[in-house]
Design brief:
single chain, 684 residues, mainly alpha, two-stranded antiparallel ribbon, 27 helices, 6 strands, elongated, DNA-binding, zinc ion binding, WH-like_DNA-bd_sf
DNA sequence: ACCAGGGTAAACATGT
DNA sequence: GACATGTTTACCCTGG
């Protein structure tokens, strides 16, 4: 048994590494490549860039999806280690970090300039973009396959007009989707630009390509329109007339005769390089030449950033010369500028659509983070005021050291599929006091609140977040251990299984295993609510729910905050009252059956009962011998001690039979009274 | 300042 | 002896 569990632990550890390591590895690789790209004078075409960035987004999206499942993500991570993204039919070149990589998001976090709401919105927008890109990419691939198939057919069967038409249609569709992909990419650029403009994201010196391209391609339509007016003058009116839409839909029929067709944009054709933007450039140069010398939107890394140009200019004067000569005011440049405006406009529209879609998705998923109500912040998105300290707490790197190290790096928060809701937090168990306030959990401004548990649906919902986000769960070890045990089908787990549960449910516990495992063992031994039961297979740990309830600090009546929260927070949905539990136990009901736990109605009822009793019993606990603040008022009333009878329960599979006893130790921990547990003594 | 709860580290014992 | 498991103690931090 011991050997077996030991093997399990080892394999589990390896799984942990596989689960967390490749992920980081992938991200690090992405970052590295991005940075190396920024330092490389060579450039790739926009299409290739778009493909690569879309693959990045795909990777991230896959990661998000994969991580929703406990173990599949580990395998997927392994797969990601091999960089399957490079198999896409694009030339493998340098990657420009125009997709907001997790590192960048982490950077944002570290800069502590984002409010949680902002961050949440950004993350979700990014996620939505990634997913949409994935869809487009898949569709694009299908179109590509179809095109190739038809090409083959054509080769064998000879060319026929219909097939040619079909082929053309497919090609057109493909181009359209390519354009969509490019637009998605540019949307992300704009997204990033918005971040930059808001000062939320600073671009490191090693990544000059990013801001330049973003600036070049992510201009706000209003600015472009103004620019357009300045540059084109009388042409503007024609544009408006020409537009089929009220916006800047500059179709190819509208642009001038020398205008590039739509495909030229997405294919990044080597359009002749002369354009009217140079006028503006000159205008700017005349005003503040120095200012734009190193920050010209159209110049970066010795390369002209005019769309489709990429002419190498050794220095800024040569670039200016090139700009004046090649991108002068002519129809072609005008057309290019129009196309760019159109792209920007469509990006704006796309962004608004994506926002709407995001809202719909969130409302569908009952995500509460964007609710306008007070302090609906997700757990991981702490307020900026407390970000630093919380970050150190939440950082997996900070796990081994003491909580007094606020300088620890911020946790790389991987965006999880769900967001922590305040209601569900309290369903788990006691919130770790020192973290609860930092996490800005509105409901628990009183750290002594003891709303808890037995709401596995809610808990599972939050678990989805913690499975992916390396955020330290704000629950005590005892609560987590208990949750893990109660989630097990037999309400009992071996130590190793508890370990596995931790690593499975919390990305945070996939690191520093020695630390938290020690803490788990410590808590198991320390807290009386955890009962060790030996059977043939070995020792398993169970939860003495009454003991667990006893430790709950009860200051409900004395806490105006709590009272207020109770009134305003729909009673936390699910805590099962101790009274109800006791009643169930007395009636030989399966205390921890999944049915009872998964019944929201029952949980609500239990919660109401519990709250009422808490309020009533606060001052009626007549057990004078127990003045422990950790004692629940319920215990004075019931004095029911759920205890295990190992002799009665089947060694193999049967759930533990629960009998009630009348006596128990009042203290939850420290004074663990083993006389109360003759079973264990007997067994040991 | 004190206390309690919680986290972390570590020593130690025991069993495999 | 190595390792897993379990117990215990000590120290620290946080919040009341």
């Amino acid at each position: 048994m011991m050997q077996e569990s030991g093997t399990e632990t080892k394999s589990n550890d390896s799984v942990i590494q596989n689960g967390a390591g490749p992920d980081n590895h992938l991200l690090e690789c992405t970052l590295r490549e991005s940075r190396s790209n920024g330092e490389t004078p060579l450039e790739v075409g926009a299409v290739e860039l778009a493909h690569l960035q879309q693959q990045q987004a795909l990777q991230a999206a896959r990661q998000l999806l994969i991580n929703q499942q406990p173990f599949s993500g580990i395998k997927a991570n392994k797969r990601n280690d091999k960089h399957p993204s490079l198999q896409v039919p694009v030339s493998v070149a340098m990657m420009t970090p125009q997709v907001i990589t997790p590192q960048q998001m982490q950077q944002i976090l570290q800069q502590q300039v984002l409010t949680p709401q902002q961050l949440q919105v950004l993350l979700q927008q990014q996620q939505a973009l990634m997913l949409q890109q994935q869809q487009l990419q898949e569709f694009y691939k299908k179109q590509q396959e179809q095109l190739q198939l038809q090409l083959l057919q054509q080769q064998h069967a000879g060319k026929q007009p219909k097939e040619q038409q079909q082929q053309q249609q497919v090609a057109t569709q493909q181009l359209a989707f390519q354009q969509q992909l490019l637009q998605m990419q540019q949307l992300q650029q704009q997204h990033l630009l918005t971040l930059q403009r808001q000062g939320l994201l600073s671009i490191q010196p090693g990544q000059p390509t990013l801001p330049l391209q973003s600036l070049a391609q992510g201009m706000i339509p209003a600015e472009l329109q103004q620019l357009w007016k300045e540059v084109t003058g009388s042409h503007t009116a024609d544009d408006v007339v020409c537009n089929n839409h009220s916006t800047l839909d500059l179709s190819t029929t509208c642009v001038s005769s020398t205008a590039q067709p739509k495909t030229s944009l997405l294919l990044n054709s080597q359009a002749s390089t002369n354009g009217q933007a140079s006028v503006l450039t000159l205008k700017r140069e005349s005003s503040s030449h120095e200012e734009y010398t190193h920050n010209h939107p159209l110049y970066g890394h010795g390369v002209c950033k005019w769309p489709g140009c990429e002419t190498i200019c050794e220095d800024f004067p040569s670039f200016l010369k090139h700009l004046n000569s090649e991108h002068a005011l002519d129809d072609r440049s005008t057309a290019q500028c129009r196309v760019q405006m159109q792209v920007v406009q469509q990006l704006e529209l796309q962004l608004s659509k994506d926002k709407e879609r995001l809202q719909a998705m969130m409302s569908h998923l009952h995500v509460k983070s964007t609710e306008p109500k007070a302090s609906p912040q997700p757990l991981n998105l702490v307020s900026s005021a407390t970000l630093s300290k919380t970050a150190s707490e939440a950082s997996p790197q900070s796990l081994p050291h003491t909580p007094t190290t606020p300088t620890a790096p911020l946790t790389p928060i991987t965006q999880g599929p769900s967001v922590i809701t305040t209601t569900s937090i309290h369903n788990v168990g006691p919130i770790r006091r020192r973290y609860s306030d930092k996490y800005n959990i509105p409901i628990s401004s009183d750290p002594m609140i003891s709303v808890d548990f037995l709401s596995l649906p809610d808990f599972a919902q939050n678990q989805e977040f913690y499975k992916n986000a390396e955020v330290r769960p704000p629950f005590t070890y005892a609560s987590l251990i208990r949750q893990g045990i109660l989630e097990s089908p037999e309400k009992q787990l071996t130590l190793n299984e508890i370990y596995n549960w931790f690593t499975r449910q919390f990305a945070y516990f996939r690191r520093n295993a020695a630390t938290w495992k020690n803490a788990v063992r410590h808590n198991l031994s320390l807290h009386k609510c955890f009962v060790r039961v030996e059977n043939v297979k070995g020792a398993v740990w169970t939860v003495d729910e009454m003991e667990f309830q006893k430790r709950r600090p009860q200051k409900i009546s004395g806490s105006p905050t709590l009272i207020k929260n109770i009134q305003t927070s729909h009673a936390y949905c699910s805590p099962l009252s101790a009274a109800l539990q006791a009643s169930m136990a007395e009636n030989s009901l399966p205390l921890y059956t999944t049915a009872s736990m998964g019944n929201p109605a029952l949980n609500s009822l239990a919660n109401a009962i519990r709250e009422d009793l808490n309020g009533v019993m606060e001052h009626t606990s007549s057990n004078g011998s127990d003045s422990s603040p950790g004692r629940s008022p319920m215990q004075g009333m019931h004095q029911v001690h759920v205890k295990e009878e190992p002799l009665d329960h089947d060694d193999n599979d049967g759930p533990l039979s629960l009998v009630t006893t009348a006596n128990h130790s009042p203290d939850f921990d420290r004074d663990r009274d083993y006389e109360d547990e003759p079973v264990n003594d007997d067994m040991e």
